[in-house]
Each structure stands twice: as C-alpha cells, then as structure tokens.
Amino acid sequence: MNTHKVDRRQRIGDVAEIMLDYVEHKTTYQAQSTARVRTASYTDPDQWKAEMELIFRRVPLMLGFTAEMPDPGDYKAMEAMGLPVLISRDKHGKVRAFLNVCSHRGAPVASEGRGNCARFTCKYHGWTFAQDGKLIGLSESATFGDVDKAGLALRALPCEERGGMIFVCLTPNAPMDLDHYFQGFLEDFEAVDFANWAYLGTRVIEGANWKIAFDGYLEGYHFASLHPATIEPRTPSNRTFYEGFGPSMRIGFPQHRIAEALKSIPRDQWGDQENNGFDFVRILFPNVSAFLAPEITQVAQLFPGPTPDRNRTVLHYLRREPIRDDADRESVEAMMNFFRDVTYQEDYVIGMEIQKGLESGAHDHLTFGRNERGNQYFHEWLNWYLQDDPTLPEPVM
C-alpha cells in the first residue's frame, strides 16, 4: 500500500479531529503573534513590478487543467501576466507550453481560447508550426530565402502536467521542480483523481490589487459579517486550520454539523470524509484557490494587472461527472453563475472599496490577527521571494 496515501488520510483525519474541537470549544488556529503588512504593499507600483519579475515570472503557475485539454491535438491559448501563452497536447499525449509568438514577425499562431488542431498556422503570413513547436512550413518558401527552420521554432516554456493540472513557468529555460515547490501537496489532487474530472467552464470577474483579492481566500474570520446568508449557514466564522506545503497551503474549514457528520463514522475513516462535516480550500502559491466539492468545484486563478490596483480572476468549474444532458447543463450554468455572483458581489466588491481605503493613506499598516495565520504566511512567503535571496531561511507554518 502507498504509505503517502495512508499518511495523507491519517493527516486529514487528525485535522478533522482538531476542527471538531475548534467548533466544540469555539476556538481556532493561532499564530504566535499578530503581524503587520505595509499598506504600500497593495498600492506601490514598484513592488507590483517586483512581484511580476521575482514571483510570477519565476515560480510554476497553474495555467490549465488536464480536463480542459484531455485529447491529443487539444490546445489552449491565453494571456498570463501580459504574455501570450500557448499550451498544446501533442499526438503522443505530452503537454508543452510556448510563447504564442510566430518566429517570423511576432504575430500569434493561435487565437485565444481552446481548440484542437494538428498544426498551428500564423494568420499573418501563414507560417505553420507542429504541436511540438517546430517550424514545419513557410508559405511561398521559394521566394522567401534560406532559413534555419530548426532555429525558428516557437519559444518553449518549462511545462509539466501533474495531479490533473498543467504548470508553466513564464521564463524560458528556467528551472522548475514541482516536487520541491509543492512539498507533497500535489498528492492531494492525485488522491481525488482530479485528472479525470469533467471540465464545465469558466466565469471571469475583475477586482482590486491581486493581494487584496487573494487575502479574502485565506481566512474564515469574515464569514459571519460578509457572508451571513451564503457561507456562514454551512461554515462557522473564525474556525480555521492551516497547513503549509512550501509556500502553498491547505486550509481546513469545519462545518457547523461536523460533530453530527462524524459521530457514526469510525475514527480511522475520518480521513475520507472531506465535504462531510469539513471542507478544504487548497491554495497554490501565488495565485490559485481551489475549493473541491462533489456538486461543483471552483478554482480561482488570479492574474495581477493590467495595473497594480487591478486583478482579473478566472473562475474555473469542474466536477467528477461529465454533463449528462441539456437539463443538467442548464443547472450547471446556473450554479456557475451563482458561485461567480457570490464571489464577485460579496468578496470582490468590498475588495475594491479596500483598494480605495488603502490608497487614501489613512493607515500605514494593516494588522493580521493571530487567527489569520494563512494571511501572515502568504505575506511572509511573498516577502521571501521579493528579497531574491535563496539562502534566507524559508518561512514555516
């Protein structure tokens, strides 16, 4: 038997027991102390540029799902941090990523969106590229002149598919070590067979500075005041458990009914009860928040910009079973709209008000409580990357 899977189940069971205690004794995870973050961290254009260069262009970013492009020839063209990116699954099933830029005159070789094709053809002059990025054809080549086709391939980006997700580093030739970066966290996604879930679609919302928006995914202290009718009926406010996996996190949220849900289940099976009495939000640093639920899963992908005070968030929706029929599709679309509306109207609208508040200069610092350890940890890692010195000790939960 895979000892990692046993360890994972045992760990989730232990976390469930801790969260049961939180609900029964009205307590939560506590950091050693409160922590302060400069308000300029959310408004300073220089810090924003440094975040783009030292974090978003260097770390593995989750840019796609196996379920989005499961078949040979499938591709996804998108913009990430202002860069045109093309992800392609070749005829052997291997996923690759490129800058979506023709080597002739710089036009895109695929239009934004998803599709399936045997080759990519630049719409400007008709140059064609294979699924592996190699240049395979020049239009009117007899009149063009001699070129080194091998040296005119699409510019590749480091890319790896793991746990049902596709990770890309936006800097060509950069090192990418997912095992070191995620510290065993991807096993969580492998354990639930995430690669074989059905992809349902996306919704897009826009909001304030990416960190203002992201901070909202990292704590449950605001549930009673901000989500009294949507989240709080299921999940009590300010009852949260945190685990760190490198800079990423698994955040445990007990449900009000955790004692009732677990009382008839043997203790050694609590590790299999996710969504029955407790839930997790999985945070992939720097910009992904995933809530895996059986009815519908929402994975939020936050893209900073185009200016420091803005972010664009793509909300992806998946579930275990594919769409059954038209009626099922209709109910799924309604559910996606509901989740989008709650996220936007309840979280992102106040985020834009916070942006104005921080830009007013009213306070020099924000304070994160001992009960907001996830936010503290996120900002500790953010600062670790911004110092650009790998010899410094890494933050620990």
From TrEMBL:
InterPro entries: ARHD_Rieske_2Fe_2S (IPR015881), Rieske_2Fe-2S (IPR017941), Rieske_2Fe-2S_sf (IPR036922), Ring_hydroxy_dOase_asu_C_dom (IPR015879), Rng_hydr_dOase-A (IPR001663). Residues 62-168 form the Rieske domain. Pfam families: Rieske, Ring_hydroxyl_A. PANTHER family: CHOLINE MONOOXYGENASE, CHLOROPLASTIC. The keyword Oxidoreductase applies. Keywords: 2Fe-2S, Iron, Iron-sulfur, Metal-binding, NAD, Oxidoreductase, Plasmid. Its cofactor is Fe cation. SUPFAM superfamilies: Bet v1-like, ISP domain. This is SRPBCC family protein. It comes from the Bacteria.
